[in-house]
Structures are given as C-alpha cells and as structure tokens.
Amino acid sequence: MIEVNNLHRTYRRNVHALKGVTFTVNAGQRFGIVGESGSGKSTLVRLLAALDRPTGGLIRFRGTRIDTLPERKLKFLRNDLQIVFQDPMGSLDPRMRVKDIICEPLDRDYDRSERLRELLDAVGLPQNAATRYPHQFSGGQRQRISIARALAPYPKVLVADEPVSALDVSVRAQILNLLDELVERYDLTLVFVSHDLAVVRRVCDTVAVMRRGQIVEIGDVEQIYRYPNHPYTRELIAAVPTLQGALARFQGGS
Ligand code: ADP
Ligand code: MG
Predict the structure, then answer these.
(1) Distance 15 CA to ligand 1 centre (A)
(2) For all residues of the chain together, what is the average pLDDT?
(3) Nearest bound ligand to CA 21?
(4) CATH of 2-253, one of 3.40.50.720, 3.40.50.300, 3.40.50.2300, 2.60.40.1180
(5) Which atom number of ligand 1 is nearest to the Cα of residue 162?
(6) Relative to the CA of 161, which ligand 1 atom is closest?
C-alpha cells in the first residue's frame, strides 16, 4: 500500500527532521509510528499525505510515486488517504455545521444525506448532531466528527496523528476502541502515530520506533513492547505515562 525509501526532509536552518527513513505498509496492516516529541513523526505524516515534499528519497502509494507528482495528479491520494489530527478543534472549521464538515469531501451529486446518516451512526454520534457546530461538542465527540469526515470518501488508508493525545484519559480508550472497530469494519490500512507505545500497542500490529528522524527499531508491536532491543525504546516504555497506567490511576481516583 505504502512504500517509503530512504526518506529525508531537511528544513531551513539545517533542521534534519527525517534522515533516511525506510519502511513498507501492506494492505490491511496497522502500522504504528512512535517517538518522543520532535522525532519527526508529523513530518513523516505530511510527506505520506503529499502535503509536503521530501528533500530526498521516495514514496510510493499503491505503486505510484507520489513525492514527485504535481497537485493536479494527486486527486486519488486526496481520496484514498485520509488524516485524523490531534486537535479536532483546530482541524474543524468552527463556522461549519457538522453535516457540512463531514460531507465536504464528497461529490455534489452523491446522496449525501444517506451517507451522513451512516457515518454519524458508525462513529456513535446522534443524528441530531448534523445541524450543530463543533464547539457544541466535547473533545471526544469532536474527534468522532473528524473520524466521520475522514471516512466519508471511502478511503483505503487512515492516518491518525496523535488522535487521542489531546483527549481526557477517560475518553481515550473509547476513541481507540472506535478506531479499532472502524479499521476492522471498513477493511482499512492504518498508520497510527503516537508518543505512547502503549497506545500504539492497543491498535497496531507493527511499530516503527523513531528517534531524531530515524527508525531505530521496527517490527511486531507485541514483540517490541515486551522485548525492546534499542535503549531508546526501553526509555520510551519506562518514561511515558502509559494508557494502562493512566487508566489505573484514574480508576484508583488518585
Ligand atoms: P513530531 O511530530 O515527532 O513531534 P515533527 O515532525 O513535528 O516531530 O518535528 C520534527 C523536527 O522538525 C523538529 O525539530 C521540528 O522543530 C522540526 N520542524 C517540523 N516542522 C517544521 C517546519 N515547518 N519548519 C522547520 N522545522 C520544522
Ligand atoms: Mg507531531
């Protein structure tokens, strides 16, 4: 589905955000990318979505090189690959009603009302959410709106960049469960980015551990979580407050 080969992205002032990243994501795979803040995860996401261009290396999407394609030839990618961002408030237009947000990626001639009903249902929002505005919802519900919009054009790949990092701990598990269920139901390929390996482990089968623009470890998420090879991976596991840990603290009321 996705092939990334020796990818580099250098910003001005000699910031080397990506330094030779190579991996493939197969159809139906749930590919996690984990690393501390500043390790290059969002840079990689922008390149995968062709929202930015690499300074070296190549990216193929279903066999087609996308890193060199002009925007007018990227329509298939704009459809087939959808992104859910960390902050739903920042990524949803506050002046648009939910129905217009969700249906924005759909063609005019499409039966939007039927698709809208389906999508609200799929993400667990009530039908009367359609005529309301983003600020009238909680953070978790806003992330459901983002997910519905992402699913609208029947994408093949869903890319989620820290989709639960801005949410209350009590809501995180619900959104992760929802993503898990939707990926299964719609046969999606998932690229899931987080700074928390426990969160990645909840929804992914494979993980790439990123540090300073490079992948230091890649493979089966369960294997890497239990037997991390790289000291940095061990640090990540030890240092980051995990979903399980946070949930335990939350439930313990401390
Ligand atoms: P992450 O998502 O893992 O936190 P980013 O990809 O956002 O990491 O950032 C990786 C590095 O690239 C950081 O050092 C960051 O400051 C830098 N960076 C990101 N975007 C830009 C940009 N548009 N211009 C300059 N530097 C950037
Ligand atoms: Mg980021």
Answers:
(1) 8
(2) 93
(3) 1
(4) 3.40.50.300
(5) 2
(6) 2
Domain ranges of the chain: 2-253
Say how far apart CA 175 and CA 194 lie, in whole Å. Answer: 14
Q: Residues 23, 38: contact at Cβ < 8 Å?
A: no
194 lines ligand 1 (CB under 6 A): no
- Which tens digit of pLDDT belongs to each residue from 93-133? 999 999 999 998 887 777 788 999 999 999 999 999 999 99
Burial, 35: exposed, middle or buried (Cβ in 10 Å; 0-12, 13-18, 19+)?
Answer: buried
The pLDDT tens digits of the residues spanning 66-94 come to 999 999 999 999 999 999 999 877 789 99
pTM to 2 decimal places? 0.92
Regarding the beta carbon of 51 and ligand 1, being less than 6 Å apart is answered no
- Please report how many Cα atoms fall inside a 13 Å half-sphere around the Cα of residue 178, on the Cβ side: 24
pLDDT (0 to 100) of residue 247: 59
